[in-house]
Amino acid sequence: MSEKKTALYDAHEELGARFTDFGGWSMPVRYASDTAEHHAVRRGAGIFDLSHMGEVEVSGPQAGAFLDFALVGVLSAISVGRAKYSVIVDAAGRVLDDLITYRLEENRYLVVPNAGNQEVVVRELTARAEGFDVAVTDQGAETSLIAVQGPRALEVLKATDLDPSDVVENLKYYAAASARCAGVEVLAARTGYTGEDGFELYCSNQDAPALWSALLKTAEKLSTEDAPVSAAGLAARDSLRLEAGMPLYGHELSTEITPAEAGLGKLVEIALRKKGEAGTDTVGREALAAVVESDPERTLVGLEGVGRKPIRADYTVVSGGETVGVVTSGLPSPTLGKPIAMALVATDALGRIADGDVSVQDARGRDIEVKQTDMPFYKRG
């Protein structure tokens, strides 16, 4: 069993959750059914405990300039109350993590790394802060994060005593505001990792159980057969993000996968160009510039199964009678009713793959018939 437990661990046990180790945390993988929890998010709303995610506050007169240097992106250009997706790389341009950064005040930001990379990100930000008038504060151990995702997400929050409800309702995508939900002070962000509309609520650990309980009581009142509202575990979150074509660190992103191979070449290119115009440096700039100026050796593509055989991570991709890539993520899609996967394949094999010369081999070398498809696999609306 993992050593780290969130402030909601006991609540998950009471719900009969099954747990898994994720980034060193004991997290609920499911409560009753992966598929039912997945469909709840697509049709109604799902309530997730994401308190394993990291939270790092960066504050001080040079906070914006520092983040421009430390991360890939012009974070100083974010308006107060808005957020930006970016990556942090090492001097060789290798991706250490992908993260979201919120600008809370003029000189105060909140950086949110993935659970398994929190220590790495805190260590790197602390080291890179030398020479800048900033403070880097790891708040992960005292902060909880609860997400409400799905077409009924706003309805769930408003029915859980949301104040001011009009401010939260009018938030744009990748925006955040302070609010109270069930009497608990939260940072309400219109962000998520499911491909649906939704909100992520940051609060203190001591307030998390009350907020979770209030949200579940609302779920009981609002849930219907056609538009269910329920707690959801990490298994559903994984199938939801895969359908939405969103990368997962350790699968589509790692120190062994360049940003261009992961499909983030345009993000890096724009960030480097804007930083160049502003005369701002960034860690790994030369290595990143070299990456985006050349064609990637591998390309991330979407695959779907022609039959019902599931496609799993680490299965090999075959074209022209040779191995040309590897599946990075693969699952049966509850929404689409077919197996889907993301795979890193040799760029010079893309033509053959697009023409249909492609298959996947499982761990025993058995062929699975697939075809290339556009990503994301699913778009809401």
TrEMBL record:
Q: Which GO terms describe its molecular function?
A: aminomethyltransferase activity
* Gene3D superfamilies named in the record: Aminomethyltransferase beta-barrel domains, Aminomethyltransferase fragment, Probable tRNA modification gtpase trme, domain 1
Which species is the source of this protein? Kocuria carniphila
Its keywords, alphabetically, are: Aminotransferase, Transferase
Family per UniProt? Belongs to the GcvT family.
Catalytically driven reaction(s): N(6)-[(R)-S(8)-aminomethyldihydrolipoyl]-L-lysyl-[protein] + (6S)-5,6,7,8-tetrahydrofolate = N(6)-[(R)-dihydrolipoyl]-L-lysyl-[protein] + (6R)-5,10-methylene-5,6,7,8-tetrahydrofolate + NH4(+)
Chain ranges passing through the membrane: none
Name of the encoding gene: gcvT
Pfam families per UniProt: GCV_T, GCV_T_C
Name the record gives this protein? aminomethyltransferase
Domain GCVT N-terminal: where? Answer: 8-269
